[in-house]
Here is the input.
Amino acid sequence: AQTVTQSQPEMSVQEAETVTLSCTYDTSESDYYLFWYKQPPSRQMILVIRQEAYKQQNATENRFSVNFQKAAKSFSLKISDSQLGDAAMYFCAYRSAVMEETSGSRLTFGEGTQLTVNP
Amino acid sequence: NAGVMQNPRHLVRRRGQEARLRCSPMKGHSHVYWYRQLPEEGLKFMVYLQKENIIDESGMPKERFSAEFPKEGPSILRIQQVVRGDSAAYFCASSHGTWPYNEQFFGPGTRLTVL
Here is the structure.
């Protein structure tokens, strides 16, 4: 079974600064997807960024980028030019890319990192 | 195109009552996933359904919990004889069936409080 670990329960950053959230995972599969989700106080789950394991290039979405280290099974999220609206709980998630009818697209989540942005 | 809808958003039940949580997937989506988020924890997979079929319920507690996704109407997560430990946020996500690009889209969740 796959596991996802986020070792930082809380992080804080000054507005306009850069912060990196850590995530490690454990899997025996070679093909999979990794995600970062944001959960603001409204509790709505918002997809921030995704990475396909077969792609060597790190994904980027505006101020959000990842550092994907497949051999180390590490998937960190970097937020540049942090804004007050970035304050939220951030979850790292794993999804298998092996087509198994019974598992579908189930996501395995880490425990989350609460990010505070200080003005 | 409306997103995933869940209702109610908040549900309060007393111990021993039944809770029914509804999820309407996005238009065109035939796959539904339910996740539970206990306080201060991440989301945990509960069950995966397609229309009229439970595909994977390996994350569901063996007793008191059931789920369905009928041919017509929303998916229902049913919790019988609720206990305080069932207090959590329950999220539904939906996707279409084109593997492997079947991105999950989440609903806003139902927060269940058991008194």
